[in-house]
Amino acid sequence: MSNLDRQATPSVCGGRGFVVAEPVRELLSPRRVTLGESTEVRRLLPNLGRRMVGAWCFVDHYGPDDIADQPGMQVPPHPHMGLQTVSWLHEGEVLHRDSLGSLQTIRPKELGLMTSGRAISHSEESPRPHARFLHGAQLWVALPDSHRHVEPHFQHHPELPVVTAPGFTATLILGEIDGAASPGTTYTPIVGADLALARGAEVSLPLEPDFEYAVLSMSGEAHVDGVPVLPGSMLYLGCGRSELPLRAESDAALMLLGGEPFEEELVMWWNFIGRSQADIEQARRDWMKGSRFGEVKGYDGGRLAAPELPPVPLKPRGRVR
Question: What is the average pLDDT across 58-65?
Answer without folding.
Answer: 96
